[in-house]
Amino acid sequence: MTRVTTPINPVLDTFINPQPERDYTIRIRIPEFTCLCPKTGQPDFAELTLEYVPDHCCVELKALKLYIWSYRERGAFHEAVTNQILNDLIAVLQPRFMRLTAVFNVRGGIYTTVTAEHRAAYWQPPMPVQLP
Q1: What are the pLDDT digits (tens) for 80-115?
Q2: What does the UniProt record say this protein does (predicted)?
Q3: Which of 70, 73, 74, 81 shows the shortest CA–CA distance to 112?
Q4: pTM of the model as a whole
């Protein structure tokens, strides 16, 4: 298990990828994300979906939960918080591919969805198999 410090949360734990020779997708649904509006201080609620193809390590789920909870008292614009979470996870995991989608609840009659992606320079998605 690896422990890595991020600017926001003191610990994001990882563990060794059990199948590093294979591309596979891990999808994590986080339905109770909360941060604060930086203008009003009102709570913002979102559902996060994290999808990634691990390289050498995977994120430990309890550590991810605690990291996500650290945003509950932070003011952050939707675009900024989505990209910050992605940046922190990329720094820790160095994945082959990662996508974070944040679907924020309605605020003032407006819904916001922010999707941010990362691809390692060397990684290409597998080609579909052509059957004869």
Answers
A1: 999 999 999 999 999 999 999 999 999 888 999 999
A2: Catalyzes the NADPH-dependent reduction of 7-cyano-7-deazaguanine (preQ0) to 7-aminomethyl-7-deazaguanine (preQ1).
A3: 81
A4: 0.86
Please say whether the dihedral angle defined by the alpha carbons of residues 40, 36, 51 and 20, taken in this order, is positive or negative.
positive
pLDDT digits (tens, 9 = 90+) for 20-45: 999 999 999 999 999 999 999 999 99
Residue with tokens 């590093």: 20
Assign a CATH topology to domain 15-119.
GTP Cyclohydrolase I, domain 2 (3.30.1130)
| Strand pairing class (12-16; 110-119) | unpaired
Residue 16 host element (H or E): strand 12-16
For residue 9, the SS3 value is coil
79 is in an annotated binding site: yes
* 56 carries a ligand binding annotation: no
**Is 3 within 8 Å of 93 (Cβ atoms)?**
no
21 among annotated binding-site residues: no
Q: Which residues, in sequence order, are CB contacts of 21 under 8 Å at separation 6+?
A: none
